[in-house]
């Protein structure tokens, strides 16, 4: 057990180191001069040389990486050219909005997607099964920004049924104190119910949109896992003992796939937490995805590399968590 745990931790450490190395090299390989992004194209040569010296860009690539690694171990991701603040502070400021959006979408996707996948497998070949498969196929085929623009055009512009972009209407901005950084939660904690319903209305459309794309993956994978489980001999034995259909379906078959499904859910959630870049950009949602997009447009490499590194660390962390949960739920996993 100790040897296996040590091996997994070593693997995680090597993965994180590889992520840091690749992120650093991509930042140096991109055709963007970080010095020019800071001082501008018309800066005097002596100013450019001084800034390059201060950033350590005059040193070898190995020395630059060592300096980058030392700063990283101290939690220093550099300073953002766009905001003038440390990148770490920017990420802490923008990430709660992404967490709010991703968590809402994930809860909706799990509540709808898992039952759809289970019932589709139980009724394989039926009309219901075919409908679920078509819904999943469309969700995985249609570009997210296309559906986002269609939803805004129909529900906001034409029908005036949904609010516009952003987290809140202008009249509510600045009224809710920052407690968690998630406006819906903060408004509820502060008892400002008008602001709460307004924030919830703004959250609904992007959350439902992301939930649809997530549940299409979850429903398809759940159906696949369930079909495999329902063909097992233990299911035939359970039915032969006279157990009820729902008990066989949910307790025996679904219980058998819970470990594998946990990995799918964790990676899906990680994909949402990466910022849902296109969705946040279309809906002007002030999260990590929008921050990353604006940083790219402003050639703010410290912000781009910092956000990319955080996204990668989230993937690694959630993957490790899913792996641990799968081992607890399924004793057959070594």
Automatic annotation (TrEMBL):
Keyword field: Cell membrane, Membrane, Transmembrane, Transmembrane helix, Transport
Localization terms from the record: Cell membrane
Keyword hit for Signal: no
Membrane topology: Multi-pass membrane protein
One term of GO molecular function: dipeptide transmembrane transporter activity
PROSITE patterns reported for this sequence: ABC_TM1
SUPFAM superfamilies found in the cross-reference section: MetI-like
Residues annotated as domain ABC transmembrane type-1: 95-322
UniProt-listed InterPro entries: BPD_transp_1_N (IPR045621), MetI-like (IPR000515), MetI-like_sf (IPR035906)
Transmembrane stretches, start-end: 12-30, 101-122, 134-157, 199-219, 261-283, 303-322
CDD domains with a match to the protein in the record: TM_PBP2
Similarity field: Belongs to the binding-protein-dependent transport system permease family.
Protein name: Peptide/nickel transport system permease protein
Source species: Pseudaminobacter salicylatoxidans
């Amino acid at each position: 057990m100790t040897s296996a745990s040590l091996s997994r931790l070593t693997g995680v450490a090597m993965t994180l180191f590889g992520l840091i190395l690749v992120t650093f090299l991509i930042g140096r390989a991109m055709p963007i001069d970080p010095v020019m992004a800071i001082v501008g194209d018309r800066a005097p040569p002596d100013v450019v040389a001084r800034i390059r010296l201060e950033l350590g860009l005059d040193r070898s690539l190995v020395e630059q990486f060592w300096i980058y690694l030392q700063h990283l171990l101290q939690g220093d991701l550099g300073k953002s050219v766009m905001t003038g603040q440390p990148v770490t502070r920017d990420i802490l400021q923008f990430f709660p909005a992404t967490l709010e959006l991703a968590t809402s979408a994930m809860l909706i996707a799990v509540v709808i997607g898992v039952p759809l996948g289970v019932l589709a497998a139980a009724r394989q070949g039926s009309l219901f099964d075919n409908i679920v498969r078509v819904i999943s196929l469309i969700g995985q085929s249609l570009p997210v920004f296309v559906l986002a623009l269609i939803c805004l055009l129909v529900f906001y512009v034409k029908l005036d049924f949904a609010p516009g972009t952003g987290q809140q209407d202008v009249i509510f901005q600045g009224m809710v104190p920052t407690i968690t950084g998630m406006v819906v939660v903060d408004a509820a904690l502060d008892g400002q119910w008008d602001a709460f319903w307004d924030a919830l209305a703004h959250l609904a459309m992007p959350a439902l949109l992301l939930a649809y794309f997530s549940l299409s993956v979850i429903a398809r994978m759940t159906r696949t896992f369930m079909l495999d489980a329902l063909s097992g001999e233990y299911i035939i034995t359970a039915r032969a003992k006279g157990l009820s259909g729902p008990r066989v379906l949910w307790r025996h078959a679904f219980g058998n796939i819970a470990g594998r499904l946990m990995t799918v859910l964790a990676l899906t959630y990680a994909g949402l937490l990466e910022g849902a870049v296109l969705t946040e950009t279309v809906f002007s949602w002030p999260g990590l995805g929008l921050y990353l997009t604006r940083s790219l447009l402003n050639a703010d490499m410290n912000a781009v590399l910092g956000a990319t590194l955080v996204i990668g660390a989230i993937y690694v962390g959630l993957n490790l968590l899913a792996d641990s949960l799968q081992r607890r739920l399924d004793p057959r996993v070594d």
